[in-house]
Amino acid sequence: VQLQASGGGLVQPGGSLRLSCAASGSIFSINAMGWYRQAPGKQRELVARYTNTGSTHYADSVKGRFTISRDNAKNTVYLEMNSLKPEDTAVYYCNKVQGAYDYWGQGTQVTVSS
């Protein structure tokens, strides 16, 4: 399984960005797939993900601002980020759990700054 993340960048506070994560290889489904982030000096944390059953789960800090969505035909998961704040600045990683394995994308930098 390979995960290719894209869509990061520099945005002003209050702005929006959309991240994409395309999965390739031996994909059973795009359940158990989502986004984590890691800010400098902090631990990696969950942002949003699809669970094993396909329901969504969000970190409290992004509820109402971020939306995870997917395109099953493209094996791609998206993260629409609105009302961005400086504290959203981090490297965002795509993650997928499949069987006993945990797969990670290469990370994409999101910087929220004026």
Keywords:
single chain, 114 residues, seven-stranded mixed beta sheet, mainly beta
Note the beta-strand portion: over 45%
Shape: globular
Order of helices and strands: EEEEEEEEEEE
**Main pleated-sheet profile:** 7 strands, mixed
How far apart, in Å, are the first and last alpha carbons? 37 Å
Mean pLDDT: 95
**In terms of structural class, how would the helical and strand content be classed?**
mainly beta
Low-confidence stretches: none
Oligomeric nature of the chains = single chain
Q: Measured on Cα atoms, how large is the radius of gyration?
A: 13 Å
Summarize the structure.
By secondary structure, this protein is mainly beta. The chain has no helices and 11 strands.
Could you explain how this protein is built, in words?
This protein has strands at residues 2-6, 9-11, 17-24, 33-38, 45-50, 56-58, 66-71, 76-81, 90-98, 101-104, 108-112. It is an all-beta fold. Strands 2, 4, 5, 6, 9, 10 and 11 form a seven-stranded mixed β-sheet that branches. A hairpin with a 4-residue loop joins strand 7 and strand 8 (76-81). The chain is globular. The protein starts with a strand and ends with a strand.
